[in-house]
Amino acid sequence: MRPGAPAPGAPDTKPKSFGPSLKRLLRRLAPERVLVVLIVVLVTTSVVLNTLGPYILGKATNLVFDGVIGRQLPEGVSKEQMIEALRAKGDNTFADMLGAMNVVPGVGVDFGAVGRTLVLVLALYLGAAVFGWLQGFLLNLVINRTVKRLRSDVEEKIHRLPLRYFDSAPRGDTLSRVTNDVDNVSQTLQQTMSQLLTSVFTVLGILIVMFWISPLLAVIALLTVPAAIVVTAQIAKRSKPHFVDQWKYTGLVNAQVEEAYTGHEIVTAFGRSREVAAEFDKRNQRLYESSFKAQFISGLIMPAVMFLGNVNFVLVALVGGLRVATGSLSLGEVQAFIQYSRQFSQPLTQIGAMANLLQSGVASAERIFEILDAPEQSPDPVMAETRPVDRGRVEFEGISFGYDKDKPVIERLSLVADPGHVIAIVGPTGAGKTTLVNLLMRFYELDSGAITIDGVDITEITRDHLRSRIGMVLQDTWLFRGTIRENIAYGKTNASEQEILDAARDAYVDRFVHALPDGYDTMIDEEGSGVSAGEKQLITIARAFLAKPSILILDEATSSVDTRTELLVQQATAALRKDRTSFVIAHRLSTIRDADLIVVMEQGRIVEHGTHDRLLTERGAYFRLYNAQFEAAAAEA
């Protein structure tokens, strides 16, 4: 990571607000709008059936209660006569209650009617369960499709980002965004969407029925809602920064672990294990603190809302009892209302409990959106791959470039490389040698000037077509998990077996591969375990040979190869370089004596160019480099 470059997700990065980020996340469900509408219909149906259940159960309670009271009244008199008799005795309370009941004096419980009512309730709940299962199945399908598209979008975005982005982003943090944060968004949607939809529709349905039964009790039940909303909002407001920190430090911890694991040998060799462990402990402690605070603060929502729900229950039970006593409501209606009041507070409690999940998921979504919103590399021109770039004549026309605009690395550099020529680029560290070939590959865009291949500006060629004509072998080898055969074939996916074997022989891979247990089918991992550093380099060279490019770039490609193998590889590349342009970045000047043109760079400028013998004769920068190298070798000897 270059000094001074801000890392995405760094502590000074301001997160987006909760509302817009949540809306943006929900908008990603748009391609599934048909299924979403069907889910809403299923949820509504399920909630309606569930909501009718307590009301019908209240009817069953009335049947039982009416039967019990009717059994206690004298047979042969009418209900109206009993009410008049009670009022005559001054028992107005019982008379009012009896007036609101559907009793027949002397007649007990109608168990047949009770049974039919219970069967109806059972059917309602069974139907609600079926519709609920269907909406859960479809919602799970919608969410998984949405997350699949999100992963694909992030993966495609990664490939459209310029290398400049990765220069300024810790690799572990980027990996955490692509894996951990996407997984967290998936879990958040799966755990909250279904419950959230059900809870919202349940609240609306219950409100309608409660106002239908008793507007007074409904108003009492609603008294606690504003308090619950205020409590939830205030707690969520205080927990959100800690959720943001939680996922930020998750990325930093992953970056630390990935860096320490990749460079384990260096850490051990330089005795920095304690410092690395101390830095990990520091970041891990920050992750622990932010996670604890986020979960603890957000965890206060549910008990607070439950307390308000219990207060609501007490008020409803008290007022409801008085209304039954005055005959304004039946016992069944009060029973149903109490059930509704509990059901009403339950979804509010669930919504409050989901607040912490939503906070966590939206915090992860913001980190993902930062990648999706990052500036992309300039788009490829349409149909540009039809432009011929097969001869390999490369011209750098007054190019300038800097990783930072105010710190140029290359300034007004011009250079021509003819087909079949070997161009060696030498110079001290930081002179711009590797930057030059990175610009040729369009890993970075020029600040000014132009690079042409066979007279075609490389910006008029698609990157894929451009890079398919260039073979590149780096000093830092990289192998993929797979067999040696598969790693060689990476240079040409449709290569035949014979082509793979020929490339392996040209790169002298065939010399050592037969000594391995499974030959070309020997499995190696990303770190190249099982083969030496020099053998890994030969495999990457064979990969470039197989591609048969028009332009070849060797960035200190033989640095890990022994002297004898280096000579053999140079002989093999001689045939490959025929009618092809080759750029060789070398520190060992003895390896480039036969180059057609040697370019000496210092501070982003070409200070000398010519053949090996001519540059030594001029006794300039190349002469000083050459003598310094061999003087150092003599001193070491």
TrEMBL record:
It comes from the Bacteria. GO terms for molecular function: ATP binding. Its main location: membrane. It holds the Pfam family ABC_tran. The keyword Nucleotidyltransferase does not apply. It is found in: Cell membrane. It is a multi-pass membrane protein. This is ABC transporter ATP-binding protein. PROSITE patterns: ABC_TM1F (PS50929), ABC_TRANSPORTER_1 (PS00211), ABC_TRANSPORTER_2 (PS50893). InterPro entries: AAA+_ATPase, ABC1_TM_dom, ABC1_TM_sf, ABC_transporter-like_ATP-bd, ABC_transporter-like_CS, P-loop_NTPase, Type_1_exporter. Residues 37-360 form the ABC transmembrane type-1 domain. It comes from Nocardia callitridis. Residues 394-628 form the ABC transporter domain. The chain crosses the membrane at residues 34-57, 118-143, 196-213, 219-236, 296-322. Keywords: ATP-binding, Membrane, Nucleotide-binding, Transmembrane, Transmembrane helix. The keyword ATP-binding applies.
